[in-house]
Amino acid sequence: MVNEKVVVDTINRMLEAGIDDSTIISTLKDIGLDDDSAKNLLNKTKAGGDDSSSSSGSDNSPESKENYEDDDELNDLKNVKDELETQGQLRELHDATTHNMLNEHYDKINEISKEVENVKKSVSDSTARFNSQDFYKKPAVDSSSIEDLNAKIDALSSLMKQILEVNRKVLTELEMKK
After folding, report:
1. Total domain count for the chain?
2. What is the value of pTM for the model shown?
3. Helix, strand or coil for residue 144?
4. CA-to-CA distance for 79 and 124, rounded, in angstroms?
5. pLDDT digit of tens for each residue in the chain (178 aa)?
6. Which domain range does residue 47 map to?
């Protein structure tokens, strides 16, 4: 976990810089502290309660303080590096998941489009067979309902293509954000 002295020093710097409490608490939560711990540390630091962490070292020589500060800085840098790596990995996982979902949607849209084309072909074949036969009775399906059905199929196909285009744009935008 994060060294409490490093966190207290960071809180002090943030307070000196005039950063508001909610931003400080949010930052503390980003490094892994829960909400209550973040608020307690902030209140403790504001009240000047960071003396307990500074009195924990028994050697008060300047060399040991410099070594301690160097170690704290190294630990702080390592923690920041680890956090950045973790965020990068999370971003990559999110992008990969989004990409996979878009590919699945693309495949599903293609399947639906093929099925729509098969239905259109089947309807047109049925219509051709029906028209080629000599029936003198009233047909069960009139040509206007077939035209309506074809129009609906075309509208559905157009809608699916628009959905695919929107998915492609979203994927492109996600790729550009990398």
Report:
1. 1
2. 0.32
3. helix
4. 67
5. 567 888 888 888 888 888 888 888 888 888 888 888 889 888 988 887 444 444 444 444 455 555 666 777 888 888 888 888 888 888 887 888 888 889 889 999 999 989 888 888 888 877 766 665 555 555 566 677 788 888 899 999 999 999 999 999 999 988 888 7
6. 4-89
